[in-house]
Amino acid sequence: MKRYKDFASDGGSNIVGQVVDQQTRLRSRLASVKHTVAVMSGKGGVGKSAVTVNLASALSLQGYRLGILDADINGPSIAKMTGIQRSAFSIQHSAFKNGLPPAIGFLGLRVISMDLFLPDEKTPVTWDAPTQKEAYVWRGTMEMTTLREFLTDTEWGDLDYLLIDLPPGTDRLPNIAGLLPQLSGTLILTIPSEVSQAVVKKSITLAKEHLKTPVIGLIENMKGYACPHCGNIGELFHSSGILACEEMAKNLGIPYLGSIPFDPRISLTTDVGKPFMSEFGDSPAAKAIIEIAEKIKTFIL
Amino acid sequence: MKFLCVSCDEQMKLKETQGPDEGSFTIVFRCPKCEREFALLTNPMETQVVRALDIKIGGSPNRAAEPMEATRTFLTPLSQKGEPKIPNSELQTPKSTESASLAGGQAGKEGSASGPGCPFTEIVNEAFQKSEQMVWVKEAEERMGKIPEAVRPMAKMGIEHYAREKGYKEITLQVLEEAKGKFGM
Fold first, then answer.
1. Tens-place pLDDT, residues A25-47
2. A261: domain range?
3. Global ipTM
4. Residue A162 near residue A37 (C-beta atoms within 8 A)
């Protein structure tokens, strides 16, 4: 009796051909994007999206053309953080045959986010299906398809950097790495806490050893509290007994890009969609972000 | 997924598709050698898996995909935002074998190894468009209950298609009788 491999075709659907077409369209779309960088963490709540926005702002202020893809399908925040009004973004399909123009945030940041597809802040992402039973089987696949469409169907135009803000955890990076073999590198964020460090090690191992994606380096966020009055840095997290992030990066064989002190004005500006990097460009946190941006450029170039 | 006719040791070819009926499809395959046929019936979850992959069973449609088509088609809140989902007319190629086979029970287009042409693509697209639901009166539904379960989805779709063509808004016993005559049942 013949086996699966004995038949060259799949019976008429040409699935392989369809996947190749998808990849071709993706490559074609991203041909005008010089560098793609994924930003990930292990734990949630380490300030990944805010750091992504501020790194993009820092580079944009230097004259680079930036795009941000909010890959957090179920918890999107980039649109709000970059000052984009949901109502100003239209997904009216008939007008855009070649792709959807990204929303434009402050400093000219080009943004695509699931948030722009939702009617208001309180509405969660839900998918139409004849049944929601056993939705766990297909929900992840649907989100992956959405990510691919975000990459492929957004008219990014010419970009120097496309930053991809991944949701917490390690599961989305393999998807992005699969879609983007040309990924320039991965930024990994942590905060100086034992729990965060324990989880972020998994992200680093996944990126470096399993996926073989270039790891640009580790960023330590919220390291200390920068006093807005005197600029002095005080300790924010209890640090005794935990390995310094710099040491951890060294042990794991990845670059340590630097630390960003906690500054309440970061959350203040991201909450109202104002650019922290231009509003408070002289703050210790902004200077730290600029330094990290310089290291990213050095790594990539 | 490939299907083998065990008797002939031949790959079975797609013959026709029927549906959707509440998210389920009936896909008929035929052995090119002995002409034996069988039907694959999908459950809603299986159908949704295919849609989530954004893969068209039967090959790529004869049109370019709309930007963000899958996302905009399946995201529930879009209708609340007032943005139109992609209308059926744009998702479907001109009247395909699907229509012919649904209306008249005629043989659909033969599946081909080379790609496009399978009406399943359009059917899958249509399945999640929340197209106008045909109302079945209780008596008609009871009558349908007497039909063997295996062929009920196909029969139901054929009757609904007939009713739509005739401009009926609901399926009554009279519509069933008319459809029966039309199909030669």
1. 899 999 999 999 999 987 888 99
2. 29-300
3. 0.82
4. yes
